[in-house]
Amino acid sequence: MDRPRQLDSMEGVNGLEVGHDRLLSATHEEILSGATTDVYFVKTLDLLRACGCADRPVAAEVFAREKGVFAGLPEVLALLKGKAGVEIESLAEGEAFDSRETLMRISGPYSSFGMYETVLLGMLASASGWATAARECVKAADGKPVLSFGARHVHPAVAPVMERTAVTAGGCTAASCILGAKLSGGEPRGTIPHAAIIVVGDTLQAAETYDRILGEGEPRIVLVDTFKDEAEESLRIAGSLGQRLSGVRLDTPGERGGVTCDLVREVRWRLDKAGHGQVRIIVSGGLTPERIRLLGECGADVFGVGSYIAHATPRDMTMDIKMVDGRPVAKRGRMPGLIENPRLRRVL
After folding, report:
1. Which pTM value belongs to this model?
2. What percent of the chain is helix, strand and coil (3-state, nearest 5)?
3. Which of 22, 149, 225, 291 is most deeply buried (CB count within 10 A of its CB)?
């Protein structure tokens, strides 16, 4: 994709016209042009040009105020690729980091990357928050698959970023968002929703039709909490589909007590007693690491996580200029000069 013209002066900002009959999220071209940065960075470029020092070589370092899992690097590289004289050292995507550890170092003429500070910090902050939450869920699952089902909880413009991050940096097995899953290098995963069963009017009829139309190799997983007792529905469906049934999904709403350990144990017991030991139990609905750990101990095999990942707190990122013209420098309260981190690797 050809890069759009950089919006790097107040003349350009004042001349920018935006239509209102559009989706409100930024396009890729608008992000790359600088239209989503804070205006004070554009004012900074105007000021530095007037001082004759816009192209001074600087080195800036990024750190977070809380520990977490590092993510967002691919987008930062796409943002700054081709910028004159820019070099980047960074942690790898998916590495755990400590509070105030140097996560990334960007070197080059200030004019080449300075105005993108807002943009790259936002990319890293959101992605690292999602990756951290996903990693907590994966750790709690203790080797059992965790699927990211969070797309409905965030704006669709960022849903693919979140779902991809949950897989590639957070360790989730797969994601349900089509674009997010494709960007992670995999295929989207998910069964039919309650809506399909409600419209059909019967879980068993919906399951049998689903089995008939689904491609070979696709796992047959059916929701069992729509109309009847979950254990009863599980046995009805397993009795009909037999060995073709891969799993049943429990998503019991809070109004009916939610998915509990006792429910998981009963469904598992009844399936095993009826000779359906191959059927896995997938649980979803407001899962947290604590609930994942508990339900896993009770017999749940797979976990679908949505809001815990989607609503993760972003990691508060800061970028400080630490060198100008080869001289150590910093604002008051920060240490002048580069803060070494042997884990940094040259990535651009």
Report:
1. 0.94
2. 40, 15, 40
3. 149
Among residues 102, 157, 130, 165, the alpha carbon closest in space to that of 334 is found at: 102
- Specify the amino acid at residue 175: A
Q: 276-300 pLDDT, tens per residue? A: 999 999 999 999 999 999 999 999 9
Burial annotation 31-40 (CB, 10 A radius, 16+ → b, else e): bbbbbbbeee
> Alpha helix locations (H) across the chain?
10-15, 28-33, 39-51, 73-80, 110-113, 117-141, 159-168, 178-183, 194-200, 203-213, 230-241, 261-273, 289-297, 307-310
Q: Phi-psi bin for 337: left (phi > 0), alpha (psi -120 to 50), beta?
A: left
Summarised one tens digit per residue, pLDDT across range 39-60 is 999 999 999 999 999 999 999 9
Please, are residues 64 and 115 in contact by the beta-carbon 8 Å criterion?
Answer: no
- CA gap 41, 213 in Å, rounded: 55
Q: Which residue's entry shows tokens 């413009």?
A: 157
Contact 304, 287 (CB under 8 A): yes
Burial class for 99, CB neighbours closer than 10 Å (0-12, 13-18, 19+): exposed
Are 88 and 104 within 8 A, CB to CB?
Answer: yes
